[in-house]
Amino acid sequence: VFHFLASAKGLELEHQVRATFPYLRFRVYHFDENLVRDRISSSIREALEQPLNYARTYIADIVPECVQQVIYLDSDIVVVDDIVKLWNTDLGSHSLGAPEYCSANFTKYFTDTFWLDENHFKIFDGKKPCYFNTGVMVMDLNKWRSKKFSRVIEQWMDVQKAKRIYELGSLPPFLLVFAGDVQSVDHRWNQHGLGGDNFEGQCRPLHPGPVSLLHWSGKGKPWIRLDSRRSCPLDSLWAPYDLSMPFHFVLK
Length: 252
Description:
Number of helices: 9
Strand order of the largest sheet: 2-1-11-3-8-5-9
């Protein structure tokens, strides 16, 4: 079952998906942007300040309580493998599973203000935190609800509004709560960065290794580049699936 999260035009989205995939089992949920509007701080890129980027924080609150596990997928993704393989990830004691990138410089995701305050950085005591991309996550919603992770993330967003402890939108609060406590997933399940960096959005090749999922994270979105006739080579893989309307969805 697919669960689509939309902040506007939910009925239009439902009609479009049903017309394109008449066999698909899905539901569309309205995401109330007022949940986060007053908590969002400025980011290095304006698009990262859009409230719908924060919808993943509230998945456990939005979908029915009978939904115990989901795969969260951003809207700039094409899956090219059987996603049941990702669904079968054994999370063990973890609340979340995702590909981790431990060679990335983890310190750069937070400001000096954060790293100079022991009350903040001690959150990582006893852990080996690694960067992970929040565009693809296997989530145990039972654990999420019992540990009230939505509220914990909101608390870090409130700290951010007061002290400016990060620059990168909705990602850092997830790192603060989960980094060092993530079930690692094979990198093939998030070939991210195909949209370039957050400033230039330049073309990028695939990372070495097998590919199960293509992710156009970064500034350059394939639907914009295709419409402007300034596409990158890998954008041709997006074109057959373009519904001309970005949204977020989760798979039960």
